[in-house]
Design the sequence.
């Protein structure tokens, strides 16, 4: 049978996401079985990473498999070896490829040429592993998310796009507040709306946060957008998540951020370090959800 890739949350059915949450819950309680002793997984990182790299490397080792971390500089990629050649060579040695890169078309090219599952560890367009971990984190706290409201405040970036995909699969209501010109990907939005997802894009952060069980934000300049940081700081000035914005959300609402965070920019220190913040739990859950993803794809 042809292997499965995980480039987007849309590659999974709701039932499969439920299975991943169940397994991740089990892996929180006890280390997964070392079922993949003869397997190897390559982690190709073309951008910086702390959480994703370490949680995947630890998770792969806990599953009994062998992780190999590659960067462009430590491989032949930086010296010009085409990605399509790298994809076919790596497929001969390893059982899955985890990749973080810039253009989404680059991970699609990897998936096209590789004979093994390719897992998206972040592209400019999507960050599925993070949002799966975040939905798992919310489900543990609030139960099934269908019918609940989640807010996204700030940039319509890779995280926002993945939240839209999660909304289409899990049936919660998603309200995104972003400035004009920083909306999420129109194609992803249109596909979710076609599937009947309840997503709305508004300008006012208070309107998005009203009644939400979770208020999410992220940096205003993502990796690769460093030169736009000043212009973005001006555009996003009224999108700061502070205590008064959190007050407009549900009384039990939590604050979420995929990290790394810029204190005082997109979120105040008070909110990030406060009682409602679940950012450390989100980060920890990356490990368990990715173990569940690896188990699911390596078993196929
Ligand atoms: N949240 C996240 O993906 O963090 P890293 O960039 O550190 O991997
Ligand atoms: N949107 C951020 C997420 C980092 C985990 C970025 O792409 O840099």
Sequence:
């Amino acid at each position: 049978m042809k292997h499965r890739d995980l480039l987007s949350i849309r590659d999974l059915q709701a039932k499969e996401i439920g299975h991943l949450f169940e397994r991740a819950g089990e892996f929180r309680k006890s280390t997964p079985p070392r079922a993949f002793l003869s397997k190897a997984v390559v982690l190709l990182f073309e951008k910086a990473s702390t959480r994703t790299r370490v949680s995947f490397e630890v998770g792969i080792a806990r599953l009994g498999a062998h992780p190999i971390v590659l960067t462009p500089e430590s491989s032949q990629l930086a010296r010009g070896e085409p990605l399509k050649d790298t994809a076919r060579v790596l497929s001969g040695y390893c059982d899955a490829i985890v990749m973080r890169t810039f253009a989404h078309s680059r991970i699609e090219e990897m998936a096209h040429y590789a004979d093994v599952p390719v897992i998206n560890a972040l592209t400019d367009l999507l960050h599925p592993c993070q949002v799966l971990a975040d939905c798992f984190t919310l489900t543990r706290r609030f139960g099934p998310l269908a019918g609940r409201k989640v807010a996204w405040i700030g940039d319509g970036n890779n995280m926002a796009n993945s939240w839209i995909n999660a909304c289409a699969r899990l049936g919660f209501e998603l309200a995104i507040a972003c400035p004009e010109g920083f909306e999420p990907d129109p194609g992803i939005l249109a596909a979710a709306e076609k599937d009947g997802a309840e997503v709305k894009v508004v300008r006012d952060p208070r309107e998005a946060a009203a009644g939400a069980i979770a208020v999410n934000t992220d940096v205003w300049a993502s990796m690769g957008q460093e030169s736009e940081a000043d212009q973005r700081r001006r555009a996003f000035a009224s999108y700061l998540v502070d205590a008064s914005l959190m007050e407009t959300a549900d009384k039990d609402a939590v604050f979420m951020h995929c990290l790394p965070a810029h204190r005082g920019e997109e979120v105040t220190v008070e909110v990030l370090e406060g009682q409602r913040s679940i950012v450390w739990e989100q980060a920890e859950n990356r490990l368990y959800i990715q173990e569940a993803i690896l188990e699911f794809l390596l078993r196929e």
